[in-house]
Amino acid sequence: MLVAAIMDIVTSNCDTIEKTPFKSSLPGNATMRDIAAAIQVIEEGGMYFDEPEKDDDSDDGRSGIKGIGIKILEGTTVLGLSRTSGLAPLGDLNANAGEETPKTFALLSKHDNSSQANLSSAVIPGLWDDLHCQHVAVPFAAWALANWAMASDTNRSHIQELDRDGQVVMTALMAPERTVKWHGSLVARLLLEDLKLPLSDSVSDWSSSLLATVSHASKTEDISLAQVALSAFLVSVDRSDKAQKMVMEKGLHLMRDSARKTRKHKAVQEGLSKALELLCAGDMHLSLEESQKWSGILLSWVLGKVASDTVQSSARRILSRTFEDYGPHSVPISQGWLTLIMNEILNHSKTVSAKGASLPKNEKPKVDQSKVTSATQSTNLLAVAVVNLAMAQLGTVPESVNNVPLADLLLSEPFAVPIKNLKKDSPPKFNAAESALATIKAIKSLTDVCAEDSVCQNKIVDFGILCLLRRFLLSDDYEKLGAIEAYDASRALEARDRTPDSLGESSITDIQDPCSVRVPASAHIRRHAARLLTILSLLPQVQKIILADETWCKWLDDCAKGNISCCNDPKTQSYARASLLNVYCNQQDGSGSGDGGSSKPDISNMNSNCPRYGDMIFLINPGLPHWKCHEKERQSGKKNESSSEGEPANVTDTVGDHVVDASNLSSSIDPSSSGSHVHDPEFDVIFLHGLRGGPFKTWRIAEDKSSTKSGLVEKIDQEAGKLGTFWPSEWLSNDFPQARLFTLKYKTNLTEWSGASLPLQEVSSMILEKLVSAGIGDRPVVFVTHSMGGLVVKQILHKAKEEKLDKLVNNTAGVVFYSCPHFGSKLADMPWRMGLVLRPAPSVSKHYYFIELA
């Protein structure tokens, strides 16, 4: 049909409903009679015409044309459709083609000029003569109603008044003609967006019909119809609680189907994500099963290349809400998210490695390849953990994974291989401790890969890693998962005790003893998550996110002070304080957001007003008052001075005042120094370990060596490294309250069997970069070194002199050497004595080279 075809062409070219290609060509002050005529046509599915008779309501006393009379803008042209009798039935379109066709329709035109007073009633033959009236009238009426609704709020008020029960709009939404559905959806959206109009009782029915239209249009790839229906559906869900309830009960599967069918269309995906977020934002919650069914789609939105920033943000918020609602039961989803992030990063690393194959050969690519290899193993291990935990929670292995709520997630890569390897006859035996261990290895590997690669860091931020880190730090999911496991084991044990002896022992041999349930290593998860957060906290976009989250900021501050029972680990406390300092003090420094990949910045240009604490530097006693950002306070003072200009207070100031307030910080130093004003530290003390050492274990001593079980010195040192007193924290903080204490970490391996490490020069350059970024060298500094650490410090000072970093060189007040191999080391020479069995690590190899030169 011509009119319907034209309207289909118009509507099918609407890429976005906000940019419809046509403007309303109808006036904003349409008469009630015109609107009523269009509504009647839509409601009755056609046009009824009576014999001409006296029209009492006619303004001019003539027997006017029965039909739709519409005044067109830019003139006063009137269109009308006339018929001499009855309702034209739909009938058979091919019946009696040779029969004379009556001229049932006439297109009447009138141009209201002062010189033209008579209305031409001539019947114009042509395209309209053989058309049945429904084919023209209903689409034409729907088009008119949509244009009137777009023209003005007065017209919308008239439409609402004439269609109080909403049945006319509902009829248009359910019409078989595509163009009627399109314009009916537009009318529904315009009425719902007008907050001055009361909601119709049929809004929930509109939502149901609109969602059905979206689903059907998605299957037929009618994207323009899906968009306009989805835009109206979105407003209905936003305004009507009944519509939300209807969708939660009956419509979620249609939304999922539409999301699967329109993966390449951003606008539709964006509308669906907004609608789902609206459903989850209020008092209603997705059930656990629905959350699992949506997990695959949500994660594809978070990680998808097609998805817009809006879709990614909505998906992250929905997933975070799921974690809050279902805690330990949502662990497979959070682990799946982490697995997919690692898989994307590994693909990125392989692409970068392929492009950089022609680079000069040195030890750095070997180290990077070692990290990628370890990350690949961790990814595969975590993928297996996701599958096993999902099946363990399900209690059985189904015949088809398609019937599992997590099907969309588990059927994607890299979970497909573990799914195929499942044994159908028995569910896998898996526990919370193994699940936590897989998560720890994954976070550690991801951190190692991204630690020096800013492109990788920005990618994982876009992929939503901050949501996972926040969950790992603030929640107790794995502890609760272990508690559930222990409870289930105890219930099974009670059931066994009540089991008659006649059942035999074979049926109870698989019951787990509650005492054998291992406690998940959640403290290690927090430590590695905090480390990754510290690295990412140098990125400006991450700083804004953390700064806006008062709960997260408070948790980090309490953790740094040691006020949280789960944060007794000194590394975790240091990471927490370093993250806060990076957030508060590096707002104006954009060097962390560069897109130069893993290329190193020029350390001679890294002097900054605010310290930047990276991965290799640990703060000793991070709860002390002098760990604060003085530059932050100075900037706050400037903002207070400019408050007279009318600038609103920033959330940064509010959170910053809460965290930086020294009077709230507990410390073990002289109380006189813990008032509201704290003096700047006078000097820095840096501890640097040696071969096979660590930032904390090297500087511990056993509290009572006579109480150790082993008389071996090595055993005593090992026990001291884990449980002994960390004397720089316990002693020096009291002796030197005016000093900042740091301890550094770098990788030291005797052999390549224990992992790749960088040569001495590169290790020294990397540490020098971290020291300068942290502001070490701005005041007097003393280095305390052990073993190979002494050689590293000498190389650092030599490199600093070459780079003309005079502040660090001149402010180095002294270096303390403990067992530094200035003239050689038997331990470093050990790999060569082992011959072909062990190969020396690059760091030791360079060490040996310098020893020979000496």
From TrEMBL:
Residues 630-642 have a biased composition (Basic and acidic residues). Residues 630-654 are annotated as: Disordered. SUPFAM superfamilies: alpha/beta-Hydrolases, ARM repeat. InterPro entries: AB_hydrolase_fold, ARM-type_fold. This is Alpha/beta-Hydrolases superfamily protein. It comes from Arabidopsis thaliana (Mouse-ear cress).
